[in-house]
Amino acid sequence: MAEVLAFAIMLSNGVGQLAVIAILFGTLQRHRSPPLLQAALTSTLFAICGLIAMSEPARFDNGVVVDLRAVITGLAGAFGGWPAALATALATCLYRIHLGGIYVAGCASIVFVAILGLAWRWRTRHERATRLRHLLVLGGLIALHPLPLLFVPATWNAQTLVPTLSTLLFASLAGAVAFGKLVEREMKQIAQERLLVREALHDPLTNLLNRRGFEAAFVEARGLDQDAPLSLLLIDIDHFKSVNDRFGHDVGDDVLQTVADRLQADAGRFERCSRHGGEEFAVLLPRSGTDAALRRAEAIRAAIERLETPRAAGDPIRATVSIGIAACGDGRTSLAELFQKADTALYRAKAAGRNRSILYPLDGQIPATLAAGHLVPA
């Protein structure tokens, strides 16, 4: 009875540790830390829990000591990858050496189960979901970790062999299934949260940022580089209402998607594109002054002018755009001020004949326009 109670306490403590690992593992996934930092934190997490598991073993009357180090090390390889497997195996091996005794066999067992976890991870890498049968296979693999002990005759004991292996098999299966299900629940919740965030920040038709997402992008750009120049392009499709009136809103939506795809495809690393409603788009250009913004606006205008939107019947539709440009050279100008200036420049572009880009002047500058690649006074 005492042995059963000791095993139950060890298993309940182990499941609690696995639950903590799963929750913290999910937290790391949510925050999308840099890959190296995330790998380091995940590795540290598994290594610490492996050491805690070794410090709380179940001791039986026949002298057998059982803990969940193998379960945690195998799970480290299966879910954390080779950095977590390496860190956990190294930490638990060093602690095993510190404990003394026949530590060579114990360390070989730890390394063996880490490799088994990594093998399971490689084998299931293309699976879209971790199913119960996958977790049972993982548990079975982890339960094989005592195999290296067979090469050390001093560890053989016929009286304790069967009870020990039975205990380890049950613990391995229970640990793998419990942890796998906890991680699966965390990852599903993370995926749902990211989907909700994406829907809240993106336009459903074009998949570009919406107003809220664009405002967040502006705040992020300003936070990363407070005093660097920044420019805004406000883009409006010329005569778009006539496209809807002549060909219908479905064709109009196709034109919007064609323009949006081109904007996104040509966007630079730091650029952010959004649909601001109707036929109006915006492009944020961090670290770009007036000259760079004028060149980028002209490149966009010329690229869209060459686009064709196919129709089921009839010739494809070609569109042009007018672009208003506003730039600031400090971190004090708000997004609302930039939009007001860009909107003023856009109005001038339309009044000047459309299919052109106009820069809202900074203090002391003459407003300028780009039409067909030539810079002239506005």
Q: Give the low-pLDDT segments.
A: 362-378
- The helix/strand order is HHEEHHHHHEHHEEHEHEEE
Work out the strand percent: 5-15%
The major β-sheet equals: 7 strands, mixed
Q: Write down the overall geometry.
A: elongated
| Coarse structural class | alpha+beta
The amount of helix comes to: 55-70%
Number of helices: 11
Number of beta-strand segments: 9
Our Rg estimate from Cα atoms comes to: 31 Å
How many domains, as an integer?
2
The neighbouring-strand order within the major sheet is 4-5-3-6-7-8-9
In the CATH hierarchy, what is the architecture of the largest domain at level 2? Orthogonal Bundle
Average pLDDT confidence is: 82
* Beginning-to-end CA distance, first to last residue: 92 Å
Q: Tell me the name of the CATH class of the largest domain.
A: Mainly Alpha
Q: Per CATH, what is the topology of the largest domain?
A: Arp2/3 complex 21 kDa subunit ARPC3
Write up this protein.
This protein is an alpha+beta fold and 378 residues long. It folds into two domains: 2-201, Arp2/3 complex 21 kDa subunit ARPC3; 211-377, Alpha-Beta Plaits (2-Layer Sandwich), CATH 3.30.70. It contains eleven helices and nine strands. It has helices at 2-31, 35-55, 69-99, 103-123, 132-142, 158-201, 211-224, 240-247, 249-266, 290-305, 335-351, and strands spanning 58-59, 65-66, 230-237, 272-277, 280-286, 321-328, 357-359, 368-371, 374-377. The strands form two sheets. A seven-stranded mixed β-sheet has the order 4-5-3-6-7-8-9, with helices on both faces. It has a two-stranded antiparallel ribbon with strand order 1-2. A hairpin with a 2-residue loop joins strand 4 (272-277) and strand 5 (280-286). Helix 1 (2-31) runs antiparallel to helix 2, helix 2 (35-55) packs across helix 3 (69-99) and helix 5 packs antiparallel against helix 6 (158-201). It is elongated and about 90 Å long. 35% of the residues are buried. The model is unreliable at 362-378 (pLDDT under 50).
